[in-house]
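FORM 7B: Structural annotation worksheet

SECTION A. Query
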Amino acid sequence: MDCYTANWNPLGDSAFYRKYELYSMDWDLKEELRDCLVAAAPYGGPIALLRNPWRKEKPASARPVLEIYSASGVPLASLLWKSGPVVSLGWSAEEELLCVQEDGVVLVYGLHGDFRRHFSMGNEVLQNRVLDARIFHTEFGSGVAILTGAHRFTLSANVGDLKLRRMPEVPGLQSAPSCWTTVCQDRVAHILLAVGPDLYLLDHAACSAVTPPGLAPGVSSFLQMAVSFTYRHLALFTDTGYIWMGTASLKEKLCEFNCNIRAPPKQMVWCSRPRSKERAVVVAWERRLMVVGDAPESIQFVLDEDSYLVPELDGVRIFSRSTHEFLHEVPVASEEIFKIASMAPGALLLEAQKEYEKESQKADEYLREIQELGQLPQAVQQCIEAAGHEHWPDMQKSLLRAASFGKCFLDRFPPDSFVRMCRDLRVLNAVRDYHIGIPLTYSQYKQLTIQVLLDRLVLRRLYPLAIQICEYLRLPEVQGVSRILAHWACYKVQQKDVSDEDVARAINQKLGDTPGVSYSDIAARAYGCGRTELAIKLLEYEPRSGEQVPLLLKMKRSKLALSKAIESGDTDLVFTVLLHLKNELNRGDFFMTLRNQPMALSLYRQFCKHQELETLKDLYNQDDNHQELGSFHIRASYAAEERIEGRVAALQTAADAFYKAKNEFAAKATEDQMRLLRLQRRLEDELGGRFLDLSLHDTVTTLILSGQNKRAEQLARDFRIPDKRLWWLKLTALADLEDWEELEKFSKSKKSPIGYLPFVEICMKQHNKYEAKKYASRVGPEQKVKALLLVGDVAQAADVAIEHRNEAEMSLVLSHCTGATDGATADKIQRARAQAQKK
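SECTION B. Predicted structure
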C-alpha cells in the first residue's frame, strides 16, 4: 500500500491529489502545442489541433492543417484548412468541432473531419472581426461567445437553435479586456470580464460592476479567470500573484492563495470532485503546474514539455507531446482503504483477502476484527466503491476480490451493487483501451449515461464494440443493438466504392427484420449521399408504406410512390400521392397516370366530387364516360345555375350525353324535366307563387290547392300521370283544403279508379265523420267492413261480416267491440260463428 500511495500529494490536512498516466501519446507532432490552436472535448473526448495558424512569423505559403486525434493520440482525421483565418476551436456537447473564423463564420466539422454546416455570428461581427471567442456548454446545449474588434460581445447559448444576443456595452472600454469568460446563472449565460482592477458582468439587459468579496488589496489587474465545470465556482488570478476562489455569483469567498508568481499563467482550471467539500484550482505556466486550494501550501509539478489542461467533471486531464495524464482528488473510499496505517473496514477487508490468498491465519484475525465492530457490510461497500475509482484493472480486481470475499460472510448482502460495478468496470476498461481512446472515469461514465457513451462509440464508427456492450449489458434492442445497426447501415451507404446491389444486400443480411430499425431512415441517408437507386432498393425492405411513400415523393419517384400507396390500402396515403402528382405533372400526363390505376382514379373522382367539379368533368370527357358526364351536368344544373335558361341548357347537355350513353330512359326523363321547368316558369309568370323546382306531383297538388283544377288535369295529361295517381293527388289536396263540396263533385265525376275507401280514410284523417259516412256506403263489398269500422258503425259492420260469412272480417269486427256498448254485437258474431262451424 505504501508504494501505491507514492503519487498521492496532500493538500492541507483533509485531501490528497494524485496524477497518473492515461496514455503514452504516440502522435507524431512536428510542432509544439504552443504553436497550435488546441481544443479537447470533455468526458475523455477527442483532441483537435490546427497546425500553423495565422501568425506573422509563419511564411504565407504555409497552409494550415487541421488534425483530430483520440484522447490516446490515435489519428482520426486530417485536412488542409482552405477557409479563412481561425481564432478559436472548441467541441460541442455532441462532439462536433466548432471553428470560429475571424470573419464571424463558425464552421462545424464531424469527428472524422466531415464538414457538417456553418453559420454566422451576425453582420456586426463580420464588420468588426473577431478578437477572441469561447465555446461553452450549458444544460441547453453548446454556445459560442465572441469578442469583436469594437470590444463588444455577441453570444449564442445554443448553436443548435441559433439566437444571437448582442451584449450591452462596457462603459469606457477602449481596449480588449485582460481576461473574460462565460458564466451561467439562473439558466442564463452571462459574460464576466476584467478591465484593469474592475470586474463587469454582462447580461442581456445591463452591464453591472461587481466586486469579489474579501479580495486582497493592491490588485491593479486580473490576469486570468476560470469557472468550474458546473459553473458554480470562480477563480481569479491577480497581478499581485493572489488566486481568489469563490462562488460564481461573486457573493461568497471560499479562500485566497498567494502563489508568489506574478507572471500570467497559460491556463487555469478547476479541479474538484462531485459531492466533495474540497475545492482546488490547477494553474499552469510554461514549465510549472500548481494545485492550490484552501490550504497554506500548494502541490507543485514540473512540466517537462508544453502541456494543455482539460477540465473534467471530477478532475483535470493534462496532455503533452508524449503523455496524457489525469489529476484528481483521491476519492474518500480509496483514501480510507489505502492511506498509511488505515484501520478503516475496507482496508482491513483488503488485507484479510490478501492474507487469505497466502493461506495465512491473519485473514481470520482481520475478518474477526471487522465483524466484532459490525462493519463488514460497510467494508464490502467501501471496496466496491473504491474499485470504481481505480484506473488500473489489477487494482480493480484486487478490490473486487476483497468485496467478494467479505460478501461470503454476510447473510443478506444485496449483490446488485457488486454485479453492477463489475459490469460498469468491464465497459470502462473496454473504452479506455488505447485503440478506443475514451478515458472515462466512473463518475464521468455515470454522468454521461450508457446511451451517450454508445452514441460516442457509434460516432467513432466502433460498431462491433458498441454492439458487444449492448449485448453484455442486455439493453433492449430498440435502445441498443437495433439503433447501432441502423447507424452502421447509414455509414455503409456512404461507401461509394461498393455497388448499390451489394450494399443493399449486405444491409438486409445484417439487419433483416430487426425491431426498431427503419429502412426508410437508411434510404433517406442514401438519397442524401446522392445514391437514389440504392435508396429505392432499401425501401423495398421497408414494411411500412407510410414510411416508403414520403421518401419516394421526395426522390421524385411519384409513380412508384402511387403504386406503393395503393398496395398499402391506405386511402389517406393515396390522396397524398395524388395531390403531389397533380402539382408535379401536367394535366394530360396526370390523367393518363390515373387511367392505369383504377383504384387511384376512383378515389380521385370522389375527391373531385367534393372539391374540383371541373376536373371531374374533364376526367369523364377523357374517358368518354357519357353516363357519368350526363349525371354531372344534371347536378351542375341544380348546383350552380340560377337562371332557367342556363339550367335548361345544362339539362339539354345532360340529355345529349345520355343519348350517347344509349340510356334512353335517363335521356327522356331529362327532357321531361326540361319541359317541366319551362312550364313551372310559365305558371309562376301567370299565376304568381312558387312552382320552380317542385316535383311533378307537387306541381299538380299546388295547382289543385290554388283552384286551378283544369290546369292540373291538363298537366297530368301532358305528362301522362296515371288516373289512380291523379285521383290520389286531387283527393289529398281537396281534403287539405276541406273543400268537401268539391270533393263530393269530384267523387261523382266518374267511377273512382282507386275505389272509395281512400275517401273514407282521408275524411277520417281530417276528423270529418259526416263526410266519411257518405263514401262508406259507396265502398265495394270487399272493403265494406273496413269502411264501416273506420266511421265507427260496428253493428252494421257486424251484419255485413255475418252476411259475407267471412271469418277474418268477423274477427276484425270483434277486435273493435268494446265493453257493454257492443256486447250484443259481439254475441251476434259469436252465434254466427258457432252456426257456421256446425254446418
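SECTION C. Observations
The chain is about 45% helix and 20% strand. The radius of gyration is 49 Å.

SECTION D. Sign-off
Analyst initials: ____
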